[in-house]
Automatic annotation (TrEMBL):
Name of this protein: histidine kinase
Organism encoding this protein: Acidiphilium rubrum
Reaction catalyzed: ATP + protein L-histidine = ADP + protein N-phospho-L-histidine
Domain spans labelled Histidine kinase: 179-402
Coiled coil: none
Amino acid sequence: MDHSQLTPGSDTRSLISAFDWGATVLGARHDWPAARCCAVDLALRSHAPIALLLGSTGILVYNDAYAALIGTRHPRALGMAVADAFPEYASFCRSVIERVGRGEAVLLSDSALGTAELAAAQRCGIDISYTPIMADGNRVDGVFAVIMATTARVREREGIASGLRQSEKMAAIGQLTGGIAHDFNNLLAGIIGNLDMLTTRLAQRDLTSAESYLAGARSAASRAAGLTQRLLAFSGRQSLMPTVIDIPGFLLDIEELLSHTVGPAIELRTRCDPAVGTAVCDHHQLENALLNLAINARDAMPDGGRLTIEACNRTLDIPGAGAAHTAGAYVVVSVMDTGCGMTEDVAARAFDPFFTTRKGGQGTGLGLSMIYGFLKQSGGHVELQSRPGMGTIVRLFIPRETATDAIDGADSATQAPQRGAEGVILVVDDEPDLRALLAEMLEGLGFSVVQAPDAAAALDVLSASGRIDLLISDIGLRGAMDGRCLVDAAHALRPGLPVLFITGLSAGSDAARVVTGPRVELLRKPFSFSAFEDRVERLLERVA
């Protein structure tokens, strides 16, 4: 029978009666076994959505409630193999038919499976129960699938979880601030201690160790900057810099660093499947993720043990319950230890923000949460498997590179040749120490510098007839005008004036969004002197 004759307004019982089943592998309806006929009659009498997947290929027969559920796929789906009617779930459907064919019962809980074409264009939570239809001779004739809506249950559970999160918010903030204070105090101790020692040695006119003290202070400051970036990535407000990463080479490069991190009492092994190639994510964040997991593994093996890091390719084409992951091609980097493992309760909370098993004030409890946030931003996800006394496995699913999403990790901007430093630069920042430091840097490069503490003072300078070759301004200036308003006014007075914005605001902040171009660039704090010098020279080169 031609499917075009089956109109959506027809009753499914009538459609089933009119359908040419003899043209399918099921054969004419009057030859169907009694168990099949009973199952069809039961489905048609039910008010619940029911579908029968008959024969080895799962030919679809269903009732009115199921027809309403699948929307525009009805009536075309009637009499089709389920894998053809729902090609996006073909692999999953074949798996269900195979399992039920062995006599198993399968339950899919709180899924959105099969609801992509609801007439109301909405998604809902559902349970699907798959049980075998038994024919003569204890033979499985097909699958009896009952669909039960769970949207209300899911929403109720989400509401309870939301209430719990709200009630725990103040405690979580207290734990976060205590942990961050601990981490930053350690870093500040390194910065202040090295600078104090440098001051002492300079007073003694002893310069032999000056370089090591400066290096120590710079290292601690860099780690502090890295902590803020990881916090922002965790919250989803830090722009990641995805690049194409050669995973085998990456693991080879990081192996020595990880070995030093875990110490000699722990045996480190790395394995990489020969088929593994490249993946797409932020190189720095991936390195931080592996370092964090290595530190966790080290802490779980105080008496020594083995840490194994391995990589393989994996393709996911079956949607997880509750859409836990996205189908696609991934490189999976697994971090496995032989440590103490986690109880079920601890494992269930491992990725919760602020959750930690360390004593209060000794860490933020954000390590695994940051990894989770980084991978979600990157289009991947993370899985954890652990048992007490059996160790822990953390799997990082990183999107595999394809020809269409290759990202050039190199800086596409051509390095401008350095010119002889000349010209006048206006520096606007409401932090006097930073403003003075920037001015000193620029004067050291040979520029003349005019300083202004706010937008009003800067506009006074720009309104005068004096020469200004470049405007450097913080975005978050105090007062009636922020840096963006200042630049708009500056361009009204001096069209085409090059601008370098500097800001400590996160990339996701509305206040930090500016339109950059050939004559407008943005530099985020903290930055190095070399990065600052490069931006200044590049902007001035473009107008030379």
